[in-house]
Amino acid sequence: MSAVLPIRQVEKPWGRDELPAPFVAPQGKRIGEIWFEPPAELPSLLVKYIFTSEKLSVQVHPNDAQTLAKGIGRQGKEECWLILATEPGATLGIGFRKDLTEDELRAAALDGSIEDLMVWHEVSPGDFFYIPANTVHAIGAGVSLIEVQQNSDITYRLFDYGRPRELHLEEGMAVARGEPYAMRWSSKVASDRSQVLVDGPLFLLDQVAGLPDDAAADRYPGALLVIPREGSVTVSGQSVSPGECALAPAFEAIGFAQDCVCLLARGCAD
Questions:
Q1: Whole-angstrom Cα distance, residue 220 to residue 198?
Q2: Residue 164: CB partners within 8 Å, gap ≥ 6?
Q3: Is 163 a catalytic residue?
Q4: Where are the alpha helices (DSSP H) in the chain?
Q5: DSSP-derived 3-state class of residue 73
Q6: Residue in 157, 163, 184, 219 annotated catalytic
Q7: Does residue 113 sit in helix, strand or coil?
Q8: What is the mean pLDDT of each successive set of 10 residues along the chain, which is 270 residues long?
Q9: Is this model's pTM higher than 0.85 or not?
Q10: I need a labelling partner for 164 at 20 to 30 A (CA). Which of 13, 147, 195, 224 fits?
């Protein structure tokens, strides 16, 4: 059985018909996301590549407590983004320049001024942002990134630049926080350095450059996901390359190389 997870290519109106290597978009398709199907051993995490040619909608996600209160189970969505490549002037919109009341936020979503009230962060490769649930956000054009998220598809669109897609103003207003983003959730990730990126409580994410230390092994006592960024690693003896994601049954099943850089992830509830 292959350690490499199956992928799903997802068409999006803001996607691209030409993708960075090693990905290839089918002819005539605008691919915005590459999903790696979550394995049964680690069901709570979803790993994606995202490629944008236009801005994504201004949106917000609920947390687990909010979805449980609605009677739809534990379907909250917190996520994080590691920027891989950008075109000049590429930005991410996260949070607002000042605190907004619910009435102000609703009015801004209705008339489109919400876009101007958000903080748009100019980004470059290695920028990392953790996006807590209830944070209003949007990914701008010209960005390639890896997203690691709770395995939930609940997205409430507040504004979509006039695209003919459904909005979810009432649901979104019930969970959105009209406040600035706390920059303590962001960091810079060097391409050649091991670094803890997310330390719970919902999931763990680490970058390992070269051979890992004992601390990295201690953080992953069970099954985990392996996402190569540079070079290749082996998982249960199988080579895994950039553009792929693999399930490792244990840390000891991963063969790290001196020249590899990879991400390791697991859900804290898995």
A1: 13
A2: none
A3: no
A4: 64-69, 102-111, 114-117, 169-175, 214-219
A5: coil
A6: 157
A7: coil
A8: 93 94 94 97 97 97 96 96 97 98 97 97 98 98 98 96 93 98 97 95 97 94 97 95 97 96 94
A9: yes
A10: 147
